[in-house]
Amino acid sequence: MPHLSIDTGNTAFMLLCSSLVMLMTPGLAFFYGGLVGRKNVLAIMIQSFVSMGWTTVLWWAFGFSLCFSGNLKNGSDFAGILGNFDWAFLRGITLDTPSPINPTIPMFVFFAYQMMFAIITPALITGAFANRVTFKAYMLFLTGWLIFVYFPFVHMIWGGGLLAQWGVLDFAGGIVVHNIAGIAALASILYVGKRTVADRGPHSIPLVALGTGLLWFGWYGFNAGSEFRVDAVTAVAFVNTDVAASFAAIAWLALDWRISKKPKFLGLLTGAVAGLATITPAAGYVSPGAAVLIGLISGVVCFYAVALKNRLGWDDALDVWGVHGVGGFIGIVLCGIFATTAFNPAGVDGLLRGNSRFFFVQLGAVLISSAWAFVFTYGMLWLIERVTPVKVGTAGESEGLDSALHGETAYIEGI
Question: I need a labelling partner for 84 at 20 to 30 A (CA). Which of 6, 130, 151, 245 fits?
Answer without folding.
Answer: 6
